[in-house]
Amino acid sequence: MNVRAMAAAVLVAALAVVAVGVGGASGGSSANTLTVWLQVDAQSGWSEVVAAANAQFKAQNPGWDVDVQYQTWGTHLAKFDATLAGGNAPDVIEMGNTEMTKYSAAGAFQDLTAISFPNKSTWLQGLAASGRYGGKIYGVPYYAGSRVVTYRTDLFRQAGGKIPQSQAEFIALAKRIGAKNKAKTFSPVYIAGTDWYVAMSFVYDYGGQIAITRKGKWVGTLDKPAALAGLAAYKRFFEASSRAPAGSNEGTPPPYDVMAHGNAASTYGAGWFTCCVGDYKNKVAQFVMPSHTKGQPIPGFLGGSDLAVPVGGNKDKAAAWISAFTDNASMTALRAKGNIPNTTSLLGTSVNERAARKSWFVPQSKNWVNVENGNVLRTMLQRILSGRSSIKDAASVASDNITYTLNQ
Amino acid sequence: MTVAAEAIAHRSRRRPRLKRIAHASVPYLLILPVIVVITAILGYPLYKLVTLSFQQYGLAELIQKKGVWIGFDNFSSVLHDEVFWRVLLRTVIFTAANVGLTIGLGTLIAFLLVRVSTWVRILLTAGLVLVWSMPAVVAVQVWVWMTNFENGILNYVLTELHVGDYTGHDWYGSTFSKLGMVTLLIVWGAIPFVAITVYAGLAQVPRELVEAAEIDGAGPGRVFRDVTFPVLKPIFLILTSLSIIWDFGVFTQPYLLIGSSAVDTSNYLMGVYVFIEGYSHSDFGRGAAISLLMLLIVAVLSIFYVRRMVKMGEAQ
Amino acid sequence: MSAVSEVAAGARPVARATPRAASIRRARRRRLRRAVWNVVGLGVFLVLVFPVFWMISTAFKPDTEIHSSSPTWFSIHPTLQHFRDAMARPYFWEVVKNSLIVVGAVVALSMVVAFLAAVALAKYRFTGNKLFVVLVIGILMLPQAGLVIPLYVVLAKYHLTNHLMGLVLTHLVILLPFAVWTLRGFIMGIPKELEEAAMVDGSSRLGAFTRILLPLVAPGLVATSVFVFITSWNEYIFANVILTDQANQTLTVWLSYFYGTSRATDWGGLMAASTLTAIPVVIFFLLVQRKIAFGLTAGAVKA
Fold first, then answer.
1. Which of B113, C27, C101, C198 could lock C208 by a disulfide, CB 3.0 to 4.6 Å apart?
2. How many Cα atoms within 13 Å fall on the side-chain side of residue A366?
């Protein structure tokens, strides 16, 4: 080892730097490129819709190119924050509907109220609300998904077969199914303990709410009688039909996996679950989750995405691309993939879409995301279902927490 | 003074000043590249970290690129938050457990590597590298899957081995079990580095000294204490100080293994706490304040080992 | 007591049969001890490697087996479909190339720069030595979460966002303190007599260091370079924020797309992709691990 060896090492290092400089990517985009951030669901689910929108945009805007950069749900907000700080945010960004309010309130988006997007007058109410803030429109509804009951037709037939029209009927049916399938890990209706989307549906079904505004301030209302009744109903339903641990969440394990393993006769979750139930693919069907009132559907949580234009983006071109991506042709294609389109004019009668007609949404506060990230509702549900707290106590704690956080 | 010594002293006085300066500047030139890279990239972020901690700097301020100066409010708000102190205590205990297990088990494996036949050593080393090479995010996914209550292989194996009936057992039911699983995952991932580094260090132990000590009648314990440990000392100091620093601020494993849906004030570790309180809430000023507090705390925790390392340099 | 010690202790020569039988018994005991250690070693190996084994085994299972209710150790009908799917995913080969470029640059640059700095810290006395050491370890203690956004802003100013060079510099900044700190420790373990012997030779101090020090520090350099390689290869947080274009991303970021979707996770694909990600690391280690063994004999020959 001598000076020669060291010189060789330095040379290698220098070559490495050059390789990175040359082999590195194009770096910044040209002046006439529209940067679009969509979630990876579009890449794996309906990339042809994206391609069609790109082609349409390029045809109508000669000299312009579209750079679609796909993001993942866990990290896209952290990346967005970084680009906002660095001054190179994308021109169009897909945001989850519960994520919109925080960023709209902070002034991250450009005002789109004046622009006439396709089907603006018939936008799905549940989705459109999340794009509005302070009387202005910051987000264009993109697509939605609701929750339905996916069930095993053979096991249901075994226990009597009728689709339940009320929660009471469903509980009775669940008990009958449980009597015929006594395995320790088998759930007649698999629901994760801390699945607050399901639990809050019960709350809203009984007329309760998570929080309301009174004189400009937020007040948590989970400790009010209506909400308590809903939580009690949820606990009754959970204990009769699900063997999931009190602290489990709806991501791990995914409910469709539980069904695929033969450990559940049904589950209440996203409409696309039928894709992944393994051997039982031909033995599953869906129905709308009933309310406690006979014949009514339960209010469901409408999950979905909006498209927004961050500050610093090219508003006109971004709006043009969004229009191309949310026109009737695109919406029809999205609907064919099992999504709920953003306009009632295209709304059909699939189970997924029927469940979306009655929906609830989270309090539209810029601090709502903090309540979610702090897992306030999940902690409350775990305490209730494990018996560690009474419903009233757990709900009180959660309600106070929500009041505090939303008013920050 | 002897004639020779006088001549040498005379010669060194006559050595040209330029050469002396060049000679003295060698160490500075050697550390220059490191300083340049770090200052160019990290200079501004460090400055920002300090200034942000004294400002009200949320999402709106980030977009407008202007914060509001509030002095020590961020710090006092954090220090008055009882959650902060609970999380701190929990993290200190967690760090002690993790560091102890990692260094202890890693060292034992390093010694095991010395004692086994060559083919077992190659196999075990390859295994260590395979474990080491798994990205943390992937390792967590595999662990989540292996330990899930519904059909995780862990429950299956324990039930089959008749350790008990673990069907449907939820390994994340209590705070202790959640943090226990995180400990297991982190220690498992950290052992390879310790084992391989200690093994490399053992390679520097002169074998003749070991044999001489054994001839003198020393048992394995005394051999370790008198011959091996002094050589390994700097390595142990490095490994311990690094483990404390990493385990105190660890984020990826607890956040992903416990799950973003289940982390809350009852199981926060400092790394998760600063992420949720600061960056998830987009309260960057508060996040910066907590980061600086964490820096201070970890410096205090590792001061014992760091001072020893610095002092060892002075002895040279 | 070992054979050497018994002989050195001056066991008196008795009838020829007894020492012979005794030495055979001692050899058998040594073999037995080694066999016991081998069994322990194998046990440790199995426990340690199990999650990795599970990942690789799952990568070869068809979807029906992965999602079946009774798990099996090995696949009944192994398939390469997941590997094919993973490699067919968008940008796989670009991402491999990007990761190799980044890691190659980071390892080469950090080893050279850190070694020079470590030599300065360990072997030279100069004002600012202690300050620099404290600075280096101070940077190690910084929680990375706090640095992500300001660092992104800095890189944006240099137009290095979405560029591999930006990531290389970021990794250097994260890893140089560690490399300097560790190499300093390894260098300090080298006996001073050898360095002085070289200086009598008439060579310059720096020349002596490189000629004498480098081979002795080789095991330490290797261990450090393996750590730098793996850390850079597996780094996710900064790579994810800095590289927005999928064509510029590294393998760990590419992997996150398998489980970052709101729809069903392709477990088989994720396991296959993860297995592929581990291969270059293992290759790198196999290439350099001989240096550690070399150090073993070198250490024995010296003193």
1. C198
2. 16
Q: Identify the sign of the CA torsion B15, B19, B20, B26.
A: negative
| DSSP conformation class of A296 | -
DSSP class of residue A287 equals E
pLDDT along chain B (316 residues), means of 10: 56 66 79 90 90 92 90 94 95 96 95 89 88 87 87 87 86 91 96 88 75 79 79 84 91 90 90 89 91 92 81 59
The one-character DSSP state at A119 is T
Range of the domain at B45: 3-52
C95 touches chain A (CB under 8 A): no
* Contact yes or no for C245 and A260 at CB 8 A: no
User: First vs last Cα of chain B: how many Å apart?
Assistant: 27
User: Is C234 near chain A, with CB under 8 Å?
Assistant: no
Half-sphere exposure of C285 (CA within 13 A, CB side): 24
DSSP three-state, residue A210: coil
Return d(Cα C129, Cα C135) in angstroms, integer: 10
What range defines the domain where residue C50 resides? 13-59
Inter-chain CB proximity B44 and C134 less than 8 Å: no
Closest by CA to A53, choosing from A9, A118, A145, A136, is A118
Beta strands in A280-334 (DSSP E): 284-287, 300-301, 303-308
In the chain, the amino acid numbered A406 is: L
Token pair of B243 as six digits:
């483990």
Of chain A residues 214-273, which have a CB less than 8 A from chain C? 254, 256-257, 260-263, 272
Q: Are both B192 and B296 inside the same structural domain? A: yes
Same domain, B15 and B87: no
Mode of pairing for the β-strands spanning A300-301 and A359-360: parallel
Q: Does B112 touch chain C (CB under 8 A)?
A: yes
Q: How far apart are CA A113 and CA A282, in angstroms?
A: 46
Q: Are A61 and A27 contacting, i.e. CB atoms less than 8 angstroms apart?
A: no
Tell me, rounded to whole angstroms, the distance of Cα C54 from its chain centroid. 22
Domain residue ranges in chain A: 33-146+303-360, 148-301+367-406
Q: Where are the alpha helices (DSSP H) in chain C?
A: 3-8, 17-59, 63-66, 81-88, 92-123, 129-140, 148-157, 164-188, 192-200, 205-208, 214-234, 237-242, 251-259, 267-301
pTM value > 0.90: no
Structure tokens at A178: 């449980």
- Using omega within 30 degrees of 0 as the cis cutoff, is the peptide bond preceding A255 cis? no
Determine, yes or no, domain membership for B101: yes
Chain C closest-CA separation from residue B128 CA (Å): 8
The CATH class of A33-146+303-360 is alpha beta
Mutate one of A72, A197, A258 to test the C interface: name it (highest C CB count within 10 A). Answer: A72
**Predicted complex ipTM exceeds 0.85:** no
pLDDT at A5 over 60: no
Out of B96-100, C134-138, C168-172, least confident range: C134-138
Q: What angle do CA A184, A189, A190 make, to 5 degrees?
A: 70
Query: In a mutagenesis test of the B interface, which of C5, C137, C192 is the best target, namely the one with the most B β-carbons within 10 Å?
Result: C137
Instruction: Tell me, rounded to whole angstroms, the distance of Cα B217 from its chain centroid.
Output: 38
Residue A92 three-state SS:
strand
- Domain-located, residue B66: no
What residues contact B79, with CB distance under 8 A and at least 6 apart? B293
* CA dist., res. A247 & res. A244, Å (int): 8
Closest CA to C131 of B33, B292, B31, B50: B31
Judge: domain A148-301+367-406, CATH 3.40.50.1980. Answer: no
β-strand A303-308 against A92-96: which pairing, if any? antiparallel
Report chain A residues whose CB lies below 8 A from the CB of C155.
Answer: 86
Neighbouring CB atoms inside 10 A of A112's CB total 21
Distance CA A150, CA A8 (A): 65
